[in-house]
Amino acid sequence: MTKILTALTMPKFGLAMTEGKLASWTLSPGDTVREGDEVADIETSKITSGYESPASGILRKQVAQAGETLPVGALLGVVADAEASDEEIDAFIASFKADTDEEGGEEAEAANAEPRVITVGEHSLNVRDVGRGDGAPVLLIHGFGGDLSNWMLNQDVLARHQRVIAFDLPGHGASSKDVGDGSVTVLAEAAYELLKALDIPKAHILGHSLGGAIALALLRDYPDAVLTLTLVAPAGMEREVNAESLREMVEADRTRDMQKALQVLVHDKSLVGRRMADNVLRVRRLDGAREALRTIEAACFANGQQSIDLRPVLDAARIPVTLFWGEADEVLPVAGAKNAPDHVVKHLLPQVGHMPQLEKTVEFNRLVEAFLEKAQVTA
């Protein structure tokens, strides 16, 4: 009989949260717990919130003590079946801690890697290049109005096993602001030139939102450079778009307005705080930043609709493709996922908005790692 053991780990209550305090346990070892029951109270610098059990069973072990401050993902306790022995519980805890120590060392090494600006053709691109391994690298392409920090909860995790590159698209972040005509063709060319500059002949491409459309344009224009596609709420799958929210993300000039605009990106609005809004505003106020985004907006989202149709590219794809989409997406409706062909592996996530990689980080990273591992084995 299979025995189910579930780790209770420090949750992530905000996009900027890196640690939390276990304020108290609300259940004791030996208590029966149902999925969704509150088992502990967690304090952060901003809120105190109950932590709900991800599984049903018995609270067999409290690993962390009330009052401890621990990093996100740290082991708090174990829920298990009654049939699991104490020895199995102890072995599970030891294995979890060993894996965490190994991953923590690798992630700490990656976290120390600072972005650098490199010249790529006519562009100066802000690039963060981390990780190592024998397999092909992964290229992360963020969405409209974002930057490489959109992958802050994903890049270092994926880099435990292979090289992973994130960069600011032209017109975004710390990259140069010349975007040509603002089309996905121009932006895909910049991504391809970056791969060439880094001496990467082939890569796994992971694109979010407009970055998903750029990933598809890469496959269309430079097919030999693309090994797999991971698309996250990609543009180019249908006409509908929340054009008003995109415009507000470009034009907002006050913290409150920017915070409201950014909250459209997520289902849980509490994830977007004033600090995030202030950081985005600082980038918007750089010379040429808003004008660059206006040019891209006009090219890709003209007249309140998506101007790009990349469904034929996906239909014709002969490489592994996986798709993530939040069912509560307020920017690009999840209905776009229906236009993906049957050969695409789809993950439709309930109660998740436009940024699954930040709202469902653990699940997203696990599924992407499994997809890339399978692609490496079958290549």
UniProtKB/TrEMBL annotation:
Domain Lipoyl-binding: 5-80
UniProt keyword Acyltransferase present: yes
Annotated InterPro entries: AB_hydrolase_1, AB_hydrolase_fold, AB_hydrolase_sf, Biotin_lipoyl, Single_hybrid_motif
GO terms assigned for molecular function: dihydrolipoyllysine-residue acetyltransferase activity; monoacylglycerol lipase activity
Gene3D superfamilies assigned to the protein according to its UniProt record, in alphabetical order: 2.40.50.100, alpha/beta hydrolase
CDD domains reported in the protein's UniProt record: lipoyl_domain
The EC number(s) this enzyme carries: 2.3.1.12
Source organism, top-level taxon: Bacteria
Keyword Chaperone: no
GO CC terms in record: membrane
GO biological-process terms attached to the record: acylglycerol catabolic process
Enzyme class: transferase
PANTHER family with a match to the protein in the record: MONOACYLGLYCEROL LIPASE (PTHR43798), MONOACYLGLYCEROL LIPASE ABHD6 (PTHR43798:SF5)
Name of the protein: Acetoin dehydrogenase
